[in-house]
Design goal:
With 305 residues, the protein is α+β, with helices and mostly antiparallel strands. Helices cover 37% and strands 24% of the residues.
Amino acid sequence: MPPQEVAEKAPPHSRLSPAPMVAPAVPLTLDGSSVLHQMFRVRWTAWKKLSEQQRQSIVSEASAAWAGLENHPEGGSALFSQLGHKGDLIAVHFRRSFDALNETEMQLARLELAEYLEPSHSYVSVVELGLYESSVQLYESLLEKGIEPGSPQWLQAEQEKKEESAQAMAPRLWPEVPPHRYLCFYPMDKKRGEVNNWYEEPIQERRRMMRDHGMIGRRYAGKIKQIISGSIGFDDWEWGVDLFADDPLNFKQLIYEMRFDEASSKYALFGPFYIALRFQASELGTFLAGKTPPYAPPKNSESAG
């Protein structure tokens, strides 16, 4: 029997068929502002040994420099008086690039005040918006059309979706430091354990959990301003979370409620928490005098939520 006839009469199950196309595991994400958190301890003993005239000169230079950073056109900077033993001062900077962050960091290092500040911690990240909902919808639509993942058509569709989303979400991607009195910052990971591994869950399941997770946060709109930044490849954790509010009890209420959410209860790992009170550059002298600086939000500042 000719070879071609053998092939034609082979049973159907012996013929190789292409593997079914599946949606990619990685959701689309948008990246925005570069973010730097700096934590310092004040060298109080050395600072108190200075004369009043020396302290006033140092405060005058630093206050002027910080006033300019607060109003930086790429997102601004903010000073916070830190609670607890982890440090005394937190500086938060939002910029358009790592280069701009580095320039800000070096500018502060050149100040005479830097001699009396000891770095206790820092965190580098970029504002990140995850597009789980849009990603799953896009992937399913492309698969239904028979478009192969990774093909030029597929990549073009992804790029168009990202550009469309980035334009619609520009205010969230490139925020200013929110004006509220209290800051809660913490880093976090998603579990990669033997039992619960976030990265092995199907993208549809992760989409569902993140949708439910987000519904809790929406209930705190108007009370808390939340900014999530991605730090994979930049720092020791996968994300940094900044919460800003005028009532610090809102932090406790939100984070406690989220502990019962599946995305957190099964898959979240949390790093150290940092709590601090904001003050303006003009009150730096009050802070360095060992007093709690007053704070009035800047005029025309953005609202919470």
